[in-house]
């Protein structure tokens, strides 16, 4: 493989990801796409020794945009699937995207491996097929909240979400477990402290004004994943994530994310939890859906202790009470 390089004039050459070489240090042009390489480091971890899924997903979106800017046309869809050979801290990986007939396919493979750790497909989105799901979520998050309990945990994805200079104020994420006036329960997420909304001015950008989709993917992966983990009281890892980007978010937007567990399958020890959720902007006192997502997470009892050690002790009682 040729030594990766940033092409002169590349429109991402001044972004945080490229300046800090957080995702990858450069790329090579292929006949129908781009390739790159990277080494998984501790700064990429989501669980100890395991890279945060948002890092890989952000990397493939970044390469796709560098190649042809396809994700500037809304609405668009990104489907991710994890599997194949596991990767961990210290591993070298190869990244590649290829575009044919308006379909962008990408994958991340461990060096010397045969089966991709992560695969993705980026296409246009047919929002008619998810309109009912979006309307349900908008109704859910706009209804009166009858009961709420909160807990906070450290942030492991601050570099993939927040710009340099804003990370020190976003070292913890706060999850609200909310029950509406009909008894429906969902989870909302925010970072930092204070306001229930997240300020997009703090987040990484893919252009001068537009929030990087990788930041939004990471936020939803965490929000929906934790809504599933707390439902079954086990930690786990992402299996697949299907996102529809409905409209762009700019640095002037204030947002929040929400997620809920919709299905549980499997034996006691290992389960597949299905969740859905979205990111919503508040514009002129109107809640506007900007991203819709659904996905599956594989739980593992051995992750429970990892999960518990990150939840602040003073909030464990609140979570236990809400589960009863």
What do these coordinates show?
With 324 residues, this protein is an alpha+beta fold. It folds into two domains: 16-124, Roll (Thiol Ester Dehydrase, Chain A); 127-323, Hotdog Thioesterase (Thiol Ester Dehydrase, Chain A, Roll). It contains seven helices and 16 strands. The chain has helices at 16-19, 53-68, 131-142, 158-161, 213-232, 303-310, 313-323; strands at 28-30, 33-39, 45-47, 50-51, 76-82, 92-100, 103-110, 118-124, 145-154, 172-180, 185-191, 198-199, 235-245, 254-266, 271-283, 286-300. Strands 1, 2, 5, 6, 7, 8, 9, 10, 11, 12, 13, 14, 15 and 16 form a 14-stranded antiparallel β-sheet that branches. Helix 2 (53-68) runs antiparallel to helix 5. The longest helix has 20 residues, at 213-232. The N and C termini lie far apart (55 Å). Residues 1-6 and 8-14 have low confidence and may be disordered.
Compile the SSE list and pairings.
Blueprint lengths: L15 H4 L8 E3 L2 E7 L5 E3 L2 E2 L1 H16 L7 E7 L9 E9 L2 E8 L7 E7 L6 H12 L2 E10 L3 H4 L10 E9 L4 E7 L6 E2 L13 H20 L2 E11 L8 E13 L4 E13 L2 E15 L2 H8 L2 H11 L1
Antiparallel strand pairs: 1-2, 2-6, 3-4, 5-8, 5-13, 6-7, 7-8, 9-10, 10-11, 11-14, 12-14, 13-16, 14-15, 15-16
Helix pairs in contact: 2-5
Which key features would you list for this structure?
alpha+beta, disordered N terminus, two-stranded antiparallel ribbon, 324 residues, 2 domains, 14-stranded antiparallel β-sheet, Thiol Ester Dehydrase, Chain A
């Amino acid at each position: 493989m040729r030594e990766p390089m940033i092409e002169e004039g590349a429109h991402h050459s001044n972004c945080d990801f490229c300046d800090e070489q957080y995702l990858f240090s450069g790329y090579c042009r292929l006949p129908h796409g781009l390739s790159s390489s990277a080494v998984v480091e501790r700064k990429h971890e989501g669980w100890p020794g395991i890279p945060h899924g948002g890092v890989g997903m952000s990397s493939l979106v970044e390469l796709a945009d560098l190649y042809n800017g396809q994700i500037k046309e809304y609405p668009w869809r990104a489907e991710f699937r994890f599997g194949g050979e596991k990767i961990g801290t210290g591993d070298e990986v190869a990244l590649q995207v290829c575009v044919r007939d308006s379909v962008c396919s990408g994958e991340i493979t461990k060096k010397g491996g045969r089966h991709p750790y992560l695969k993705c497909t980026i296409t246009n989105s047919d929002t008619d097929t998810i309109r009912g799901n979006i309307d349900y979520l908008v109704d859910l998050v706009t209804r009166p909240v009858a009961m709420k309990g909160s807990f906070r945990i450290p942030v492991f994805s601050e570099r993939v979400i927040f710009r340099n200079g804003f990370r020190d104020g976003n070292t913890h994420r706060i999850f609200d477990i909310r029950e509406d006036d009909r008894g429906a329960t969902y989870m909302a997420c925010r970072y930092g402290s204070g306001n229930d909304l997240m300020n997009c001015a703090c987040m990484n950008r893919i252009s001068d004004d537009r929030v990087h989709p990788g930041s939004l993917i990471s936020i939803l992966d965490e929000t929906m994943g934790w809504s599933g983990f707390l439902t079954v009281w086990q930690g786990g890892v992402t299996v697949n994530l299907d996102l529809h980007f409905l409209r762009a978010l700019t640095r002037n937007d204030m947002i929040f994310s929400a997620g809920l567990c919709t299905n549980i399958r499997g034996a006691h020890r290992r389960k597949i939890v299905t969740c859905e959720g979205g990111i919503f902007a508040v514009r002129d006192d109107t809640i506007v859906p900007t991203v819709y997502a659904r996905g599956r997470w594989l739980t593992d009892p051995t992750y429970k202790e990892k999960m518990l050690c990150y939840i602040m002790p003073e909030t464990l009682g609140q979570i236990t009470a809400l589960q009863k």
